[in-house]
């Protein structure tokens, strides 16, 4: 891994650019109602083994909102077990107040900064992978496009000949279609040849939500062309803010049932046949999350971190974040794999 490529995390980002402060409360309340609704079906939750390596030896890491998270003693993946069954999860997402609130308020208020600060740099990164690994920019397939911000940027850019989004939720598929994106309104598992041979398959912030991530990866395999790339992003359960804040980390929530780490996700991808080309942790928010927790009195920092993250934040905050990202220590990770030729 080249140092230059590895330190490519772009410009400084702050949480307020992604979710305006005045909307946070409404979103938190909607999410709390979703969680209550989910907890009412706790009797339908299912105990699982480690979603990355299959080990059964996960000891409890922490509880949050009534859910139990375990840490695999073999691969350190943090995972919710017992977890909502697939039926319960499908109902949760179909009726989520949080997503409705997000769609109505947060998305319109923050899309412009998300486009500029997140999705455009992500497209550049994906194009960079194509160049690094000699992959043709024919078809780009996005799994789980949400409202279609990334796919629309990719389509407008002309960086790929064809951009296709696969989205099972009808309202989201409709939102994508209204922006001119080619959409297949189906689950990735149910595709039947429409896009076999994608040069690049991307799934941003998807795999941490899935009941059975291995099956998802298996379903991506035949969709990617031989030699094609699969690019995933997700939280890194071994990253700085999760390590510091534990259950208090934002990434630990009722929807994130799998918190992989670069090594454990690589292992899982190899086990379904992919060749893992690289992983890195280009996160930009760990230091800010930990700083905010300290400022709010939720955690106590030792004298050194108090200096770096609070007293001398303007001087050290962003360089410290860049250090975390470069060294594989941020809580946001990317992995790039290839279907062998
Ligand atoms: Zn494991």
Number of strands: 11
Question: What portion of the residues fall into strands of 2 or more residues?
Answer: 15-25%
What's the number of helices?
Answer: 12
**Overall morphology:** globular
Radius of gyration, in Å, reads 19 Å
How far apart are the first and last residues' alpha carbons, in Å? 22 Å
Alpha-beta content class: alpha/beta
Largest sheet: 7 strands, mixed
The residue ranges in which pLDDT falls below 50 over 5 or more consecutive positions are 1-7
Succession of helices and strands: HHEEEHHEHEHEEHEHEHEHHHE
Average of pLDDT: 93
Tell me the helix content. Answer: 40-55%
User: Strand arrangement, largest sheet?
Assistant: 6-5-4-7-8-11-10
Structural summary, described in words:
The chain is an alpha/beta fold and about 350 residues long. It is built from 12 helices and 11 strands. It has helices at about 5, 20-40, 85-95, 95-130, 150-155, 170-180, 215-220, 240-245, 260-270, 285-295, 305-310, 315-325; strands at about 60-65, 65-70, 80, 140-145, 160-165, 180-185, 200-205, 225-235, 260, 275-280, 330-340. Strands 6-5-4-7-8-11-10 form a 7-stranded mixed beta sheet, sandwiched between helices. It has a 4-stranded antiparallel beta sheet with strand order 1-2-3-9, with no helix packed on it. It is globular. The model is unreliable at about 1-5 (pLDDT under 50). The chain binds zinc ion. Zinc ion (ZN) binds near residues 52, 53, 72 and 74.
């Amino acid at each position: 891994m080249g140092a230059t490529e590895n330190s490519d995390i772009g410009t400084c980002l702050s949480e307020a650019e992604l979710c305006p402060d005045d909307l946070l409360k409404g979103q938190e309340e909607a999410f709390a109602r979703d969680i209550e609704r989910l907890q009412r079906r706790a009797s339908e939750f299912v105990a699982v083994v480690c979603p990355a390596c299959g080990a059964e030896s996960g000891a409890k890491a922490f509880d949050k909102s009534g859910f139990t998270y375990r840490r695999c003693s073999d691969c350190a993946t943090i995972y919710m077990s017992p977890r909502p069954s697939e039926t319960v999860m499908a109902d949760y997402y179909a009726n989520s107040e949080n997503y409705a609130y997000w769609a109505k308020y947060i998305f319109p208020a923050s899309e412009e900064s998300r486009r500029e600060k997140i999705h455009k740099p992500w497209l550049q990164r994906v194009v960079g992978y194509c160049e690094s690994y000699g992959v043709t920019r024919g078809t780009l397939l996005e799994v789980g496009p949400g409202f279609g911000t990334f796919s629309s940027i990719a389509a407008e850019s002309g960086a790929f000949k064809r951009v296709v989004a696969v989205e099972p939720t009808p309202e989201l598929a409709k939102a994508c279609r209204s922006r001119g994106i080619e959409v297949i309104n189906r689950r990735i598992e149910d595709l039947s040849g429409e896009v076999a041979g994608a040069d690049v398959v991307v799934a941003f912030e998807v795999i941490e939500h899935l009941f059975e991530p291995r099956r998802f990866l298996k379903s991506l395999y035949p969709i990617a062309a031989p030699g094609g790339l699969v690019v995933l992003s997700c939280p890194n359960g071994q990253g700085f803010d999760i390590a510091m804040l534990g259950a208090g980390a934002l990434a630990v929530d009722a929807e994130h049932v799998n918190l992989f780490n670069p090594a454990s996700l690589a292992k899982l991808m190899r086990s379904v046949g992919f060749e893992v080309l690289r992983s890195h942790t280009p996160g930009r928010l760990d230091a800010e999350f930990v700083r905010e927790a300290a400022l709010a009195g939720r955690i106590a920092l030792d004298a050194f971190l108090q200096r770096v993250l609070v007293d001398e934040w303007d001087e050290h905050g962003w360089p410290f974040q860049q250090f975390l990202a470069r060294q594989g220590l941020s809580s946001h990770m990317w992995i790039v794999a290839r279907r062998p030729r």
